[in-house]
């Protein structure tokens, strides 16, 4: 009987594997033409200054409109990364974000810096720096209006050349932040060797801030260390007034989350910047 159950489990498992593989294959082939079909769009989520509760930056979040349905980045970014398509799509993201910022500027809006996510694959390539320089030339964007977010895990995986590329980006005048901080196994002391200005505390530590004394202790400790290293801190995934009040009491300078705004299409951001 145990054997039969084992067999069933195995069958169930392989069916699920086949389904996942089929889905993956299907997504990968339709992603190949997605740029040309103009199926990608940028959404923007404000990062608020906790003191003024006004947007201080906008995080740029990629969306894929596939047959009318919006596919989230957690499903398709890994496929772009594996297949190498992330290089081309990532460059499209940077260029489109800069074009959008210049558009807002022409409309007379007060533009705040855009925080653009970078995959590990992108910042191990010298080509990234060249394309950033080209985009700055083409669009005329002020480098101070562009920041990049790199996850802690991605930084940990890469060595020598990465540091050099990040330095070059920094030399162009663009800041770097560490995304999803606390989910990897690094230390702030280690990350300090990179030219980083800001860390984003992962929402895993914010979610139960009100209920969990451990999470409060972790956030307070990260804040203390970040302050002593002169790094600013952004809290991700802030959904309640209670979380917001606690973060303010810890001296956290920036906060991002559904409490303030969801990621929005460009048209809706305009009114937020104007308001
Ligand atoms: P991330 O960079 O950590 O972005 C924050 C994610 O948290 C976004 O998910 C955002 O919609 C979500 N979020 C914001 N506030 C809240 C909140 O209050 N509660 C909850 N539950 N979630 C919140 P999204 O847009 O699905 O993006 C997921 C990840 O995909 C991003 O995580 C980032 O790592 C990656 N990503 C998105 N756009 C790009 C891109 O253009 N390039 C690259 N390489 N990665 C991207
Ligand atoms: Mg991010
Ligand atoms: Mg994050
Ligand atoms: Mg994330």
TrEMBL record:
Sequence ranges assigned to domain EAL in this UniProt record: 24-275
GO MF term (any one): catalytic activity
Protein's name according to its UniProt entry: EAL domain-containing protein
Organism from which the protein derives: Massilia arenae
